[in-house]
Amino acid sequence: MNQATATPNRELTFRQAVQEALDEEMARDPAVFVYGEDVAFGIFRGTTGLLEKYGPLRVKNTPISEAALVGSAVGAAATGARPVVEVMYCDFMGIAFDQIMNQAGQMHYMFGGKITLPLTIRTTEGAGTKAAAQHSKTLHHLFAGLPGIKVVCPATPAEAKGLLKAAIRSPDPVIVFEQRMLYNLKGSVPDDPDFLIPIGPAAVLREGTDVTVVATQLMVHHALEVAERMKTSVEVVNLRTLYPIDMDTIAKSVTKTGRLVVADESVLSYGTHAEIVARVVERCFFELDAPPQRVGVKDVPIPFSPPLEAEVIPGAQDIRAAIEAIV
Q1: Which of the following is catalytic: 20, 24, 25, 66?
Q2: Is residue 125 among the annotated active site residues?
Q3: Which end of the chain is more exposed for a tag (fewer CB within 10 A), N or C?
Q4: Is 141 known to be catalytic?
Q5: pLDDT of 102-144, one tens digit each?
């Protein structure tokens, strides 16, 4: 079922919601198995407890080789399994880029639709932990541009569970990007083993009339904070899925407000911001009352220095400044 309404809700952290999603899907389908670097322990604790419950045949630690673990997962998915691979940091997905781009994303098409590839890749991203450039990137925009790959970016514990479960059940390869600063965030999650959030639709979290803020992950919470404090009527759209992108919801909102801010924790050039702005201009050009604004990471590597990191990554104050610039 989608978006459970009659089931009771509990308060879970984002991390607990991930754990619950994996547990429920492994219990439901014996073809689901989890592996990656240190998943038996769980560096970010998204897989904690699974080894004890399901054993070493379904929860496997791997060597430090992203190419090997993603490549073997592609093969497993092609033969009927449903692997859930954890790549500890998205920064190192580049090592497995060929396996994702040329294999996972294209096998269904290159074999004339005769093969499905139910592969889920979980990975963390985002800055804010003073972990320097090679452990702080936000790269979902790169993978959203690869044909054949679906990309989701949950912003709440309910989305962490519902989107991950939908990804595991999908016949297509899906990459789930988890913003690590959200792991301790608490929120209401339906107590339903069949609770799913469909891949694709965005969600309007707050209605407004003056400006639309399309946001992802941590930026969703910054946008809601800003909207509560401003006299300007701000509509907040939580994108949730980068590909396929829900342009109908975005266009409807922008048509109503006439103004657009895109807030995403990826670099400003050639990414999420540019794609959304381009599509809005194509569909809603004559409804726009001001130039769209972008809020994101400056086009530099994430610094190790805490003051410099704070200068580079976007926050609530940047969203507020973008709104004030066009209202």
Answers
A1: 66
A2: no
A3: N
A4: no
A5: 999 999 999 999 999 999 999 999 999 899 999 999 999 999 9
